[in-house]
Amino acid sequence: MMSCTEIRDYLIRLRPYLIASVIFFGVGFVIGLMIVNRFPEMANSFESSLTGFVKIFRGLPRFRLFTAIFVNNSVKTLLAILLGLIFAVIPTFFLIVNGAALGVVMSLSTQARGLRESLLSVLPHGIPELTAVFLGTAIGIMLGISVLRRITGKQQAKIATELGQAVKFFYSVIIPLLLFAAGVEAYVTTVLITH
Asked: Per-10-residue mean pLDDT for the chain, 195 residues long?
């Protein structure tokens, strides 16, 4: 586990990549909104595939739902970190696709249920969950840039050391955030959207 000082120092290093993560996600979100407005058929097919994925979780007892959400998000975030080693391509793609998915879902949900209900179904768990995702993808992008710099001779960073720090940060910061987000989604969001 990382100390508070190590976490703070690592976050300072992550800052430019964190900003990049938010920008890529924002670009994806705007693409999602554009898909709804310009290609409604594509948006509907996108939504139906997402609905199919959500059905896997629907009807589960709360603790199993919590566990399923946590495991799903943890695995995806860890993969975004590790696959970032391939020149940061995967975490960037992951951000744009997930941003687009949220853009489509929020747009269609707002049209169907109104803004308040749509925000209630996303914001309580979405804030800690997206924070964790942005941190994970930022690490993936940073690792990918480190690999590129190492290949081009612009940096002598030891990739194994970088990866070790990334995994420590994942367990120290990202896992607790994802646990909290999964708990909120399973025990709070489900109550909010069914009342």
From this structure: 95 97 97 89 74 72 92 96 94 95 88 83 89 97 92 81 95 97 88 64
Instruction: Collapse the DSSP code of 154 into the 3-class scheme (helix H, G, I; strand E, B; otherwise coil) and give the result.
Output: coil
- Residue 106, helix vs strand vs coil: helix
Cα distance between residue 40 and residue 80, in whole Å: 30
Q: Record the tokens describing residue 181, joined without a space.
A: 């987000």
Cα distances (Å, whole numbers) of residue 122 to 1, 6, 76, 188, 193? 30, 31, 19, 11, 10
Give me the pLDDT at residue 129, please.
95
Distance CA 22, CA 26 (A): 6
Give the residue ranges of DSSP H helices in the chain: 4-38, 40-55, 62-82, 89-113, 115-152, 159-169, 175-184, 190-194
Q: Of 129, 128, 97, 117, nearest to 194 (Cα)?
A: 117
CB 174 within 8 A of CB 135: yes
Distance from the Cα of residue 148 to its chain's centroid: 23
Q: Residue 76: CA atoms inside 13 Å, Cβ hemisphere, count?
A: 16
pTM for the structure as a whole: 0.91
Dist CA 141 CA 21 (whole Å): 8
